[in-house]
Amino acid sequence: MRVRARACAWFYDTWGFLALANRGDADHALAAEADRWRDERGILVVTSDYVLDETLTGLSKAAGGRTAIRFLDFFEARVAASRLTLAEVNRPRREAALSLFRRLAPGSPGLSFTDCTSFALMQELGLTETFTADRHFHRAGGGIRPLFTLQGKNLLWSPDRDRN
Questions:
Q1: pTM higher than 0.85, yes or no?
Q2: φ, ψ for residue 45 (rounded to 5)?
Q3: Nearest alpha carbon to residue 134 among 6, 5, 4, 17
Q4: Phi and psi at residue 107, to the nearest 5°
């Protein structure tokens, strides 16, 4: 799998999918605004099977099984229509993620292994923009950055508009 170019795709993290799929999420409106902005510009969406796993589990816990299944139906339709690229965390990617986890986890409380699989995929595919507010993406290296940042008590999103 090859993604066209860095600025042409955003990697969607669990945080983004949870905020988009759950209307009760405090960040839903902001995430929906950013997702519409992306869609209007034709920026591709890339994610992984590990992120899908984490998202379905999180949605089921936070909003219930029906919400998780609605999201899954939407997700599968997007993949089938080639509007979302689902990357598999295969053995080489998992090994790269394990190496990243060993390096980053000691200095990153709460870092998830799923985040490390995302970092490995993004580095492999040359992606830098992440649809997330997860602070761990600042530590990934390789120019990877979250599109959402917390300033005081306000969550803001900031796409690199000059590149998109």
A1: yes
A2: -115, 130
A3: 17
A4: -105, 10
